[in-house]
Specification:
It is a single chain. Helix content is 8%, strand content 41%. It contains 1 helix and 12 strands, in the order αββββββββββββ. A 5-stranded mixed beta sheet has the order 3-9-8-6-11, with no helix packed on it. The protein has a 5-stranded antiparallel beta sheet with strand order 4-5-12-10-7, with no helix packed on it. A two-stranded antiparallel ribbon has the order 1-2. It starts with a helix and ends with a strand.
């Protein structure tokens, strides 16, 4: 095969007229390969949407999970006395020290740590908050009675969200 300009032009016409994208011919030691380039598609970059970050709140030092084990050590909660009355006593709000998922029990088939009306003392585990695959046990800071559980099991919670109301002894 003699490389001829007219021969190559014929190959180009075949590419342009049909749905063929590539032709390769080899004859008598001469090889001709013609590839049709695809038209450049207009690629639109995705629009970037930016949101203003909410103001940062200083988290208590003890709120950060520390262990790399499946169950992290107990995390102290932010508990705060409020002017919420129950039988003439102020109630204590037990707040979430971290963002995560709230669990009332150590496993799906286990009994909950606490129930409404139950007496709790300092150091009792109230719930677990899962954050970044770590299970953080939330301990009670006061002695009293659980008057209300404000979060449903397996629901996400925010930092400083009220989880329980406790009537102090």
């Amino acid at each position: 095969m003699k490389t001829d300009l007219n021969y190559i032009k014929k190959l180009l016409k075949i590419l342009e007229s049909g749905e063929i994208n590539e032709i390769e011919i080899e004859e008598e030691g001469t090889r001709v390969r013609v590839v049709k380039s695809k038209p450049q598609e207009a690629v639109q970059a995705p629009q970037m949407i930016t949101y203003a970050a909410p103001p940062m709140q200083q988290a208590p030092q003890a709120a950060a999970p520390v262990a790399a084990s499946p169950t992290a050590p107990a995390v102290k909660t932010d508990e705060k006395k409020e002017n919420i009355s129950a039988g003439g006593k102020d109630l204590i709000e037990v707040r979430s020290p971290i963002v995560g998922t709230f669990y009332r029990a150590p496993s799906p088939n286990a009994d909950p740590y606490v129930a409404v009306g139950q007496q709790v003392s300092k150091g009792n585990i109230l719930c677990i908050i899962e954050a970044m695959k770590l299970m953080n046990e939330i301990e009670c800071e006061y002695e009293g009675k659980i008057t209300k559980i404000l979060v449903e099991n397996a629901q996400p919670v925010e930092y400083n969200q009220v989880l329980f109301l406790v009537e102090p002894n």
